[in-house]
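Attaching the record inline, Q. Sequence:
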Amino acid sequence: MEKRVITESKRRKGLVAASAVLGGVLLLSACNDDGKDKGGADASKTSQSQVDKAAEKDTSDAKITITPKNGADNVGINNDTKVAVADGKLTSVVMTSAEGTPVAGKISADGLSWVPDKALKRSAKYKITATAQDAKGREAHENASFATVSPANSFIGNFTPESGSTVGVGMPVSVTFDKAIANKKDVQSHITVTSSSGQEVVGHWFGAQRLDFRPQDYWKSGSTVTMKLDLDGVEGKPGVTGVQEKTVTFKIGRNQVSTVDAQTHQMTVTQDGKTVKTIPISAGAPDHKTYNGTMVISEKFKETRMNGATVGFTDGDGKGEYDIKDVPHAMRLSASGTFIHGNYWGAKSIFGSANTSHGCVGLSDTKGAGDSGTAGAWFYEHSIVGDVVVVKNTGDKTIAPDNGFSDWNMSWAAWKAGSAV
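Structure, as predicted:
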């Protein structure tokens, strides 16, 4: 095998040559760098800056604004979402839920804005992608994601009567909130109730969760009542805001007031001030007297079950003193269980002569609610939700104003004192 031997002198010559080469490189570098070099990192920065400026000159003039801002939470579900553009027009807006479900909306006729078609869901996440063009056709894009207010941080009001309904002259507007309201003044001031009759309408708080509105006297027959809920963003209590924006209108029907006299065992029905019928009744027995006072029909059932156990009337075994599964022509008068209803199980002789019930007002009727000729059927067919039933001479106390819609048992002065505005 051949052996290669490198002598010391050759090694030194090689090192010298290498040094000379490296020295030349270093020397050349030094000669070229006199503080005026435009190459390397500085040159790259300058080039990139020029590119950026050139791109900026060619970018769209359209400026898209998405409300709410990206990453926002506790966003209102009604009017807090909007896309707008300046110096251009929107060409596309796509909004989807976290699950990818599209949210319908429309770009305005002038192309300057977009809003969802309806209220968003609470505790939901959404994403918006928007595109616009300027006058030169250059596109601009914007994206945002946000989350709406949660049920824990918001409140709603469940109200009656329903929009579009026709009700009796005694029907108050009643709003029940799903959370206790501490800022009653702020909340009430964002709910307005007006009547086409011009009657003054005032709100009254029953506790922290119920707000009712009524005029001094019954609503005027034939009038239209309008309620506006403008609660979106209104603070009900610290950290809890409203989410509703809604307008509700309903009609007031003919004026029907029925007066039950437990002493004479008769009910007189008037419409628009004229007596249209007198009906024999049976009110509460001496040990289960019917409440006195002005009540309002709040529900109607052609047939319903009445179980004494649900209202505290039980036997020694805990079962209801009565359990009738097919009570005909039943209409609720109180939240505590007072009804005016048909009665087929009692002797016909009691109606007009004796008080025998557990507190309800009974009218003669037949099993099955199919006989239109009975007193129970007649009254049911001629009554609507909101009609007034006045009960007197029972020997019992007057029903509480907040038991059902018995608001009319409070004087106008006391009623107005319960307003927060």
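The mean pLDDT is 88. The chain is about 15% helix and 35% strand.

More tomorrow.
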